[in-house]
Amino acid sequence: MTVADLRCDRCGRLLAGPGDEASRDGPFGIRFLYHPGDPLLRDDSGLMCQPCWDGTTRWLGSERPEGRCAVCAEPAGRRTSLHLHRAGDPIGWQLCTGHAVEFLNGLRTVEPKLDPQTFALPARDSGHGP
Which residue, of 12, 19, 60, 66, is most buried by count of CB atoms within 10 Å of its CB? Predict the structure, then answer.
């Protein structure tokens, strides 16, 4: 968990903790969380340095289309996509399975790395309810 070791989840940079990059006592990290369509299955221990978070949000794009992958715009069901949020921001990005694997495998805390050929999100759309 990156909040526990206070290192960026992408590059491993030592951080002063979660917070705001504007503080002189930093560098502070940006907290983020992700889940597979069910907030009860969330991992909210993510922490990235500002440059890595900026790179991630550039990759994701400024749009946060509901029901579509933020990267490729393919349909992404609520329970068949990975949801990524900055901590405290209720509006996040959805990622299709392929881009979810790409994102997760870019995190240094995801070990072993996921196989894109066999990766599946735990929740599935049933067509009934949210």
Answer: 60
Per-residue pLDDT of the chain (130 residues; tens, 9 = 90+): 345 688 999 999 999 878 765 556 668 899 999 999 888 888 989 999 999 999 999 999 999 999 999 999 999 888 889 999 999 899 999 999 999 999 999 999 898 999 999 988 876 544 433 4
Model confidence, pTM: 0.84
Do strands 82-86 and 29-35 pair parallel, antiparallel, or not at all (unpaired)?
antiparallel
Dump the DSSP string for 47-72.
Answer: EEEHHHHHHHHHHH-S---TTB-TTT
The CA distances from residue 48 to 1, 38, 54, 118, 123, in Å, are 12, 23, 9, 27, 26
**C-alpha to C-alpha distance for 65 and 96, rounded to whole angstroms:** 12
